[in-house]
Structure formats: structure tokens, C-alpha cells
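Hi W., the calcium ion complex you wanted:
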Amino acid sequence: MSVQVSPSQLKEYHDFAVEVATKAGEMIKKAFFQKKVVTNKGNDIDLVTETDKAVEKWVIGVIKERYPDHRFIGEETTDLDAPFDFRDDLTWIVDPVDGTNNFVHNVPEVAFSMGLTANKKVIVGVVNIPVLDLMYTSMRGQGSYCNGRKLAASSVEELKQSMVIYDTGVLRAPWNVDKMLQNVRNIVTNSHGLRSYGAAAVHCCKMAEGYAQAWVEYGLYCWDFVAGLLIAEEAGVYVMDPDGGPCDLMGNRILMGCTEKVARELAAIITHHDMRKP
Ligand code: IPD
Ligand code: CA
Ligand code: CA
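Structure:
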């Protein structure tokens, strides 16, 4: 049976997410200026810190207390080797620290990201970039905001006039590096330039702000972009799968354009790569 969410419930969930993101942001900001305890996850550049774990643990606690019947998917407590148990039920999807590599290297583009899904669609998205004092918020159908200022995507009409975001992710297998370099070449020769901020949630917010016109990334998980996806869509950004179909939250990849035309122009010049299959 599908989940029904009334407008007042939607507002309540949004306000709760903003409250949680504010406090999580305080934890991240405090830790950002202190010595970090870092360990590797899958490989030498897939990093995790005590802050990632502490923030997620705290968030799980507050969600359990406030909404004991809601489900939760978080980066630090999910088994990547098992299929995700993603259901129609209300589900909070959280990346406690998006941009851990930035965090470790004192680069300020570090985000807390929290999205709520119902019937497998994101209905609330909040991204806090605390070191830069930027709080991005959105509810489905009600626009998106940064520190209360309404956001609107760029109105650029062509890829060749676009600033494109492309990130290298954390997989350095030679087949993947080769495809990434091909994509860098294709993007650079077909646009105004290429930027990379090292945090998928930040990339979504750049699109929503109109600071970039297109973005494509492979090898992501739902927690990297679920909140940012809504923030971008509510600002008028066109979101799709790089293959051309609708974006799949569990599909490990995303492509955005300030318009559908720009998105499809980018999709047409990209070498598609599935991170799991060389
Ligand atoms: C990473 C960031 C990065 C992306 C990586 C993600 P993390 O998340 O979003 O931009 O390229 O694929 O893993 O590990 O810092 O939460
Ligand atoms: Ca992430
Ligand atoms: Ca993370």
C-alpha cells in the first residue's frame, strides 16, 4: 500500500530534517578544525573518520526516538555487499559526511545530507555545508532554498556554453580511470570548462544555485545524492540517468542539466561506465 503524506506532515518532516542537519553540521564544523582520526574503507582513497561514524550514530538515535516506525539507510551502517532493502515506507537516507576526502584535507566543501523518501521518491532533502554556513532545504513541490533564499537553475541553453561538473570518485581501477579520462577530454572539448568539488551533495547544490549547468557522476550511492536531487529538481534542474532514462536512486549514477537539452547533450558525449563491470 502506498504511503500518504499530508502537507502538514511534509512540513513537519522538513523542519525535523533541518533541525537534525543543523546539529549534525555543528558536530562536523567543530571536528573540521581539530585533528582527524582517519581509516580506509575499500581502498586507500575511500576514507572514513570518527566524525562520519559519530554523526551517523547520533542521527540514527534521534530518528529512532522521534519516528520509531520510519526506516533508515545510512552510509556507515549499510552492508554494501547485500542488496539494499529499499521499500515504499518512509525512509530517511543519510550521508553523515559527504566529502570525507575534503574533510580530511581541510577543504571546506563538506556536507551533511539527509533525504526522506516515500513510495521510493524523495519528498524532503536537506544539505548542510557547515564550514561555509550554507543550509540547503527542499520539500517536494515547494521549491528549494539556501539559507532561506529561493534557488533557480541556470538558464544557459547549450552544453558548449556550460560549466560542467565531473568528479573522479574513489575507484582507481585502470579501466575506470581510462573511461574517466575519456570523459574529461569530451567534456573539456565541448563546454566552457570542468569543475569538481569532491562532494556529490555539493554538486547538486551547485546545480540548484545555477553555478554550474551540467553534472554527471558514476559510482555514487543513494545517500550521496538523494537530498541534493530534490534540491536541484525543485530549482528547475533536469535530472536523469546518464543512459537516457529516469534517474534511479539505487542506480549508482546521475546526470543533471540546467535544461533537458543540456542534460541530453552531455549524455550524448559521455562514455558510459558501470562501476561494477569493467
Ligand atoms: C564521496 C563524494 C564524492 C564522490 C564519491 C563519494 P564520501 O562521498 O560524494 O564526491 O565522488 O564517489 O563516495 O565518501 O565523501 O561520503
Ligand atoms: Ca558521500
Ligand atoms: Ca560519507
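Residues 10 and 139 are 7 Å apart (CA to CA).

W.
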